[in-house]
Amino acid sequence: MAEESNQQLYVLSVLSALLLPPTFITGLFGMNVKGLSFAEDPRGILFVLGLEPPVGSGDLRYHPRPRHPTSTRLELRRTAWAMI
């Protein structure tokens, strides 16, 4: 049962990784920008793309990964690699 569950999660992870770039691109170009700052500026897309990395890294710093209460980070990493 656990092996089957691991296999299904692996397939879902691969599919998620494959679909992430097209989802990002369609979300970026599908934004409704009417009335927003830089909407009429030809460099507006560069502003949005330049703003994303700092906002994303700030989000990762503000919401760090939860740690397992009884395991160290190295043990969790070894476990994750063992499942692959």
TrEMBL record:
The chain crosses the membrane at residues 12-33. Keywords: Membrane, Transmembrane, Transmembrane helix. The keyword Transmembrane helix applies. It is found in: Membrane. The keyword Transmembrane helix applies. GO terms for molecular function: metal ion transmembrane transporter activity. One of its GO terms (cellular component) is membrane. This is Uncharacterized protein. It comes from Methylobacterium aquaticum.
